[in-house]
Amino acid sequence: FFRSPTMNNRLAVLLIFSLVSFSHATKWGKPSKHHSSKADQLRCMMKHCSSMIESCMVENACRKTFMCDGACDMTDPSCYFLCEITHGLDSERYQAVADCMIDAGCMDRFPEDGKCLVGEKDGLRSESSIEGIRGDWWVIRGLNPHYDSYPCQHNVFEQLPDGRWVNNVTWLNIRVHPPKVIRAVPFVTVPSPGVFLHNYTSLHQIEPWITVSRPVPDYMFMLWCGENKEISYAGGIVVSPERNYSYIPQKVEDEFRKVAHKYGIDYDNQMFVNDNHKCKN
């Protein structure tokens, strides 16, 4: 019945969606301050977003993304990010429904996930081009317990034939079985020295990654911030072409520790180590 958009079919689609909404603690199950119960929220969604929901549920990618959302803990917004990037990265229908729910007041934005600690002026003046960081960088330490802890995070800064730069980002999604390699390819520009602005065009979000320390060529300490319609979030990473954290020179960590303190970060207790020794290129 998904193929014929009659009124009965629309009701059937909305019924399916409502059952999903009520049987899972999804982000769509987090009522806004204007809608105090799931029933109120569902009525809001059906009033303002019904045609978009119908369109979503007949598209495989959009439907899978919502079903994935249903398994997420509402306190972990990174789970929804994984769902979107795993199943709905190129689904304009999914994004349309999400935007509609926020714009119509059916759901609120998530609470801030990590405080943005840097601005454009904090970037190293010596890092003025992407050419200077071309190549492979593994995330060996992280600050945000959600986004920076994804296993096997690997960044490849490379230039496209048309001259634009991208960061070919991969990591391992261990929330699915078997684990799946996830890939995102944001465009990267340098609006000011040390600021590597990541533009995820399919996700409608931007992330400035700001290099705050690079005492030697093979190790960088970057603080980043991000924002989309649903959430503001931030974190920090130590990256290196060497995937194994144990090889980092002591003098480099001493410098990172000093810089972290400048931004109110307890390097030893807040910056966790990512174990990449089993990761493949």
Automatic annotation (TrEMBL):
Keywords: Signal. SUPFAM superfamilies: Lipocalins. GO terms for molecular function: violaxanthin de-epoxidase activity. Transmembrane segments: none annotated. The keyword Signal applies. Residues 43-276 form the VDE lipocalin domain. One of its GO terms (biological process) is xanthophyll cycle. Residues 1-25 form the signal peptide. The keyword Transferase does not apply. PANTHER family: VIOLAXANTHIN DE-EPOXIDASE, CHLOROPLASTIC (PTHR33970:SF1), VIOLAXANTHIN DE-EPOXIDASE, CHLOROPLASTIC-RELATED (PTHR33970). This is VDE lipocalin domain-containing protein.
